[in-house]
């Protein structure tokens, strides 16, 4: 298909540009690792003062974090649209995108990809295997397939939320500063949702469903049967939110008027 | 002096034009503080206090740390990097005022705007919803404001350093991101430094980062008492002065090897 060949051409160009600034690329992978380390440090320091968090142990929390890293890294590699309004609407770059015969969102995904973030998938797997080993978890033959399904679901949840937020830019081109904070809220999906009160739990499940990127899917592997329904809803929620976001995007594009220069 | 006040004013007015969007920001900040609050309640799990902080003090700490962040936080590192990449920095350097001071003043304008239109209303909302304790002691407030002024200075100096590094790296998004992560962790924004193991606390006491978030938040929650407060403020003052040296040193080196990539 045409889109696939375009994708690989962009990847080729991307690698060329990245290799021009090699030092920066290394610093970037290093800063990703640092960021992941910070989150682990948070878990470790907190469990220096308590043994259980709402009935979940340290290793379980570490496992959830490891799982979270995989869909999150895939999202971070391809959906860098947190600065969409500034970059495409305010600067009028969207005009250029719209003159080309490929879906506008697809082009932005291609232009803004950051493949070095995929390194986080490796970190995530290492963390998961480490924690899983300590917990004595067993792997069945079908687990890898379920894992892939849940990861895709989680990545789509993230993509859906951020695309939907980016489309605000089509209606209002002023700055909102919501996006950086959203990354923060995304982190709360990694903690067992029963620690929150009803409102926040509801928000994290059905409105900004970040819990479907962390605690819900991980509970399948951690054999927490009370959460299985939610775990298997992950791909459904992912697809629904992604489709809503793309629909919003398609409507939004028709409202785009250009910023002028 | 007059020109600097003008720079602060212009940046303030620029931000004012977008003020309605800040109300959505307050909502998001409140959700963030709320989630943190429940997370910490679960961590405390009925314990009276951890490391000398009660759950109320902890909630206050989190709320004030995030609200103070709105004041000292700015993106001048990214702005400098952008101006260097686009070659605008050449024009900026011709202008009749020091480039670095101008950037700092713009950051201050932004900070004052956020303090008035974001932190103050945000803090009021958060205080209504969550059990936090605001000090009734005027001197605590005064010392807190003095302390966040130092926070702004230290954080801005570190931002300038990261921005100027673009002269040497050309593309330094990675460095800027790494810097942000280090500050979040070592400044005490996500965890009070007293929660870390002793050896880590020792390391951090030799770094400037605790002056960004930990010190003002501890002053505000009255986690610091008596002479501790003055020692902490002195620490901030010393770092504010000390950091001038690398900033100007790096700036002089950078000007010498300026390459304008286009413009």
Largest sheet of chain B, in brief, is: 2 strands, antiparallel
Can you give the helix content of chain A as a percent range? over 70%
Main structural class of chain B: mainly alpha
> What fraction of residues of chain A sit in β-strands?
under 5%
What low-confidence regions of chain A span 5 or more consecutive residues with pLDDT below 50? none
The greatest interface here is: A-B, 41 and 41 residues
Distance between the termini of chain B: 30 Å
Kindly state the percentage of residues in helix of chain B. Answer: over 70%
Count of helix runs of chain A:
13
Quaternary organisation of the protein chains = heterodimer
N to C succession of SSEs of chain A: HHHHHHHHHHHHH
Produce a short descriptive summary:
Chain A is built from 13 helices and no strands. Chain A has helices at residues 2-20, 22-46, 58-78, 84-90, 93-98, 104-111, 119-135, 143-166, 168-171, 178-186, 198-207, 215-221, 228-255. Chain A binds chain B through residues 21, 23-31, 34-35, 38, 41-42, 45-46, 48-50, 52-54, 172, 174-178, 181-182, 184-185, 188, 191-192, 195-197, 200, 203, and chain B through 17-18, 20-22, 24-25, 28-29, 31-32, 34-35, 38-39, 41-45, 47, 50-51, 169-175, 177-178, 181-182, 184-185, 190-191, 195-197.
